[in-house]
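Request:
You are asked to prepare a plain-text protein record giving the amino acid sequence and the backbone structure tokens, at your earliest convenience.
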Amino acid sequence: MKKIEIFVMIGVICIGLSAVCIESSYSTNNNSYFQGLETNPSNASIIVIGSTYLIVPHNAKVVTQVDRVIKDVASNVNVNTPPYQSPNSSKQLVPYMEGARVAELMDYAHVNVIPITGVPIKKINGEWYGPDETGNFQFGVDPSKAGPLFSVDGDDNNTKIEVNTHGMNVLVPGAINNDAYLVVACGDLPGKAKAEKYLSVRGINCYAPCDRFSALVMPYNGTGKILAGEPIRRCSSNAAVIGAQPIAIQTNETIVVQTTNKTYPDQYCDTPNRYFHCLETAYNMTLKLDVIDAGKGETEKIINETRITGSKVIGVRVLNVQDKTAVENWLRSDPDNRAVLFHSAAYEPGYSLFMEFPHQVTGQDLNPVFIKQTSNTQLNQIFDEIRSLWC
């Protein structure tokens, strides 16, 4: 079984994004459930992943990208729907990926969805960027988004107008100008992670079901919360909750972590490795990571490694039924087995695992909690209190 190590590359990325991974204090945006137990990461015995949550209240303003929420031109879905059209019903949304998650927010909390369109993007020194609210172009944009599926020509060769917007990196002005409570969009570029942090500092919450680069924000101290690939549930009759699905990992446990060096469509499988290495960099700690090369449909490689090492914790991407079957069988085989899912909340095989294994599965948590050793009884009581937010 081939193992690959890309620690140095990930460390450079984590440190290089405006020191995103190494600024701020250790405890940010976390709730008070662990008062008296929290400690410096270097002294912690347990890492709690998944306890972070966001309550989305009734009729909250939710700013979204157009692509894969309002319409998906590439897949011929809602092609005649105007990109600026706010939906009156969740049934009007694209029924998968970010659209499916926004539909849950509409169904549970009756949120007011505001799609952002007509955003200028600019080419500077050969790279495309999206603007902040002052017109400063600082958030890196994939050059494909300057193409005809997404954009129309601007005033010159270095400017495009993104109509079918895609990603946090082009939603900053719209989120701020609309006084958004929450932004839901793709997080699959460093520029998108930078935009998430920028919005958080300004008190705006972000949720990225496609969370490939969201780990680059760790740690952060914005008043807005940043959530990445966590599940959404009903919370009371008029609200929704994102997250609130904790698991505990002993700091001396071996974690089998997926990665890949393949390109599209496998590259998203590097998300688990990025998260755990950014966590190490951000909190100046060393974890026992067993990094395995596995692409889409290859989670059985991760499970096979746990059989060799005896590990009961995995970091993995679940894209399709083949991925799910391997992880599902492993979770069923032992209630102590736990999985942290990455870049999985946008795909139903992965998303369903959150609901089927609510005590064993969680998503990418950008505010992990570091605590002293405590009894399973106390920990389970805390976890039950957090989960009581679910309806």
Residues 56-243 form one domain. Confidence is low (pLDDT under 50) at residues 1-13, 15-29. The chain has two domains: 7-53+245-387, 56-243.
